[in-house]
Amino acid sequence: METLGKVAALPAAVGTQPHKRPRPRVIRSLQTQVRRVLFDTPLNAVVTVLTATAIAIVGFYVVRWAFLDSAWVASSPAGCAKAQGACWAVIVKNWQGILFGNYPAEQRWRPEVMLGVFGAALVFTIAVNVRNFRLTLGVWLVSLVVFVLLMRGGVFGLQTIESDRWGGIPITIFVFLCSVTLGFPLAIVLAVARTGRLVSARTISVFLIEVLRPVPLIAVLFCTDLLLPMALPNALDPGKLGRVIICMGVFYACYQAEVIRAGLQAIPHGQIEASRALGLGPLQIIRLVTLPQALRLTVPATVNLLVVALKDTSLIVTVGLFDFAATATAAFSGNEWRPFSNEVYIVVALVYLLMTLTLTWLGHSLERRLAKNA
Amino acid sequence: MNLGGMNRAQTGRLIAEAAVLIGLACLVVATGYSIRESLVSRNIATGFGFLAQDTGWDVSAALLAHSPRDTYARTFLIGLLNTLALSLATIIVATVLGVLIALVRQLQNPLLSWLIGGYVTILRNVPLIVQIFFWYGATQGLPNTRKAFELSGGVFLSNRGLYLPSVKLGWPEYAMLAVLVVSIVISLIWRHRPRRLASGLALVAVAVWLVGPALFDLPPLAVDWPRRAGLNFAGGMSLQPELVAVLTALVVYNTAFIAEIVRTGVQSVPLGQIQAAQNIGLRQSRIFYKIILPQAVRVMVLPLINQYSNITKATALAMVVGFTDLFSVSVTSINHTGQALEIVLLMTMLYFAINATISLVGNTYAYFDRRRWKR
Q1: Which residue of A70, A114, B156, B270 has the fewest CB atoms within a 10 Å radius of its CB?
Q2: Is the dihedral of CA B32, B33, B35, B36 positive or negative?
Q3: If you average pLDDT over residues A27-46, what whole number do you get?
């Protein structure tokens, strides 16, 4: 089969490494290709047929449930009861509550604008392809400041709305961005302290990381929410949202610190000795030599952790904040839409999927660009 | 600056150490003072005396017998055992399914790989808590006990939970399991003759146990099947819907992660080795067992252990649908006694112990593995 295809074009020899030359690209007809990869052996043919049948059957039921038999518009659940399939009316009817939670209805334009601001920041990030890292970082930090000003109000003649009425997608994004913004510098400090020569700093870092990592985040969140007000004087208490952000930030930092530490330990010791011979001080060595390389090395692991952090924002519902998963639950619980909870969760899952996949994709493009520059 | 013959770097380090320690001391003193103030102002008792008191509230379901008359110590034990049981069940089922999925993917069929890849991507990227809510909603939508689904005779699924046949282990079962455990341990530590001996022993034990009731007058395995009785079921064992939902979500979610870990392990074996094995005429199955598997396992063990530790932590999410585990017992205890500090400390130490045990197992394996490969 290999010889049947036509050799399209031999790429020009690449530099001086003939063994690294890519294989010649072979153009085959679609039919040949399908036969080659899906039906080359009897076993493979059987597997193909079985898989295709399974996909067809499940796909048929899914399409029938989700599209053909579904109800999109119904003023009450009774309207949905007639439809055999999904009841998307629960989303259509409650979408504002699902997206923005308890935010006062006449002020809904504020979270809507906020989603637009986050969207614009994301488009900007994609447009510059994280090429100008400082500018990208600045844009996101500005978006956080805008978030607090716009959502809370009290300035520019905006009505003040306290954080306990915020909810939905904006709060999920806000908590994620804040905890990462807080956690990443802390992670660097912890990692440097753990690999450094200061015994006291190393002990504190090891203690914090090793105590927090075995405990579930949900338990850490609960404990912080409970103990932080006790440990801080009332004047310093940052409020529930602040406590959650501090907790998620520190928790994220403990995991991120271990990743950065692995990166720091991967730097050959000779580089540190060379820098010392050049007369650099310990902090200069970290800032100029080891840390930049360690951060580059750990981009893939960091992207994984960021996805975990984004998913973990869904846990803040357990301390009574209304993140996206919670406002979605509120859309049907305690009213007659109860039987249609799964339609809501499918939409919630799709939105989370969109967010995490965007994040992963951004991380991969950063990885590719770094690999190209290296 | 020159203090007692130290050079500049040493002096700097000393000052930095002192600064860190003084900062820490200030933080600890201030926090301690603030906590003491709030404890005194709220009139909360201190110490672990509450562990011996009766709780006055009951847990929803547990492996051990439970009642509102239990002490806090026993209730914590119940919670701990539930967490361990849920983790263990998830670990076993998710590992088996994950390995199966990864192996099926080895068939190299693009359509199947695409399907599995889609499954893995979707499940890994949706938060576990959303998946738990989803499955809980699904169990609420199940028919009531009178119209319960009957899955393959004797297994029933309704909105009251899952009804399974239960087995009562007699001494032959315990003997067989003991032999199995011993032979697994032996074959993990040694290779060659002891390992072959151990697997032979295990086979003999299972065979004797299988034919035992017919030939040697051993007591057969006692199976109790659930039966319909009035509006409910009698016999067998039942899993409450909360547990069914949490277990399903945990298994489905972690299966995706484990499948990915196993796939990475299998892919880590260089293609050249497989081609070499094909060239010397090894069968596909032998290549898998002799060349791919032993090397893949070495790559897989550490990520797997990490995932197992994640699973034990993730079981704390079971609380959101009302399953009793270590975390939910802690929360309820704090609400009833107000002794947050002590209970948080106890809970943290228990989770710490669970995870320390898991990493101990992992490190022990890594130790023997290194020793085995050195020879």
Answers
A1: B270
A2: positive
A3: 80
Long-range contacts of B143-149 (CB under 8 A, 24+ apart): B145/B231, B145/B232, B145/B233, B146/B231, B148/B233
> What length is written for chain B?
375
In chain A, which residues have their Cβ closer than 8 Å to the Cβ of B334? 226
* Amino acid symbol at B108: Q
Same domain, A279 and A309: yes
Both A72 and A106 in a single domain?
A: no
Distance CA A209, CA A216 (A): 13
Q: Domain of residue A281: give its range.
A: 90-373
DSSP string, A33-68: HHHHHHSSSHHHHHHHHHHHHHHHHHHHHHHIIIII
Q: How far apart are CA B243 and CA B251, in angstroms?
A: 12
Q: Number of residue pairs across A and B with CB atoms under 8 Å?
A: 149
Residue to test with chain A: of B13, B15, B133, most A Cβ within 10 A = B133
Q: What is the tens place of the pLDDT at every residue in A233-276?
A: 777 778 888 899 999 999 999 999 999 999 998 899 999 999 99
The answer on A64 and A96 residing in a single domain is no
| CA–CA gap between residue B42 and residue A229 (Å, rounded) | 13
pLDDT band for position B236 (cuts 50, 70, 90): low
DSSP annotation of A168: B
Number of domains in chain A: 2
Of B121, B125, B352, the CB nearest to A214: B352
Say yes or no: A204 and A183 in one domain. Answer: yes
Residue written as token pair 């499955």:
B135
Tell me the H-state helices in A129-166.
Answer: 133-152
DSSP assignment of B221-287 = PEEE--EEETTEEESSEEE-HHHHHHHHHHHHHHHHHHHHHHHHHHHTS-HHHHHHHHHTT--HHHI
- Contact A349/B355, CB-based, under 8 Å? no
Nearest-CA neighbor of A216 among B241, B93, B331? Answer: B331
Same domain, A243 and A307: yes
Q: What does the pLDDT average to over A284-293?
A: 91
Choose among B39, B126, B351: nearest Cβ to A352. B126
Contact A220, A251 (CB under 8 A): yes
CA distance linking residue B103 with residue B106, whole number of Å: 5
Q: Which of these, A199, A210, A191, A202, lies nearest to A265 by C-alpha position?
A: A191
ipTM, two decimals, is 0.83
The Cα A182–Cα B324 span in angstroms is 33
Is residue B220 classed as helix, strand or coil in its secondary structure? coil
- Closest to B331 measured CA to CA, from B346, B352, B309, B310: B346
Beta bridge partners of B224: B166
- Which range is most confident: A158-162, B109-113, B338-342? B109-113
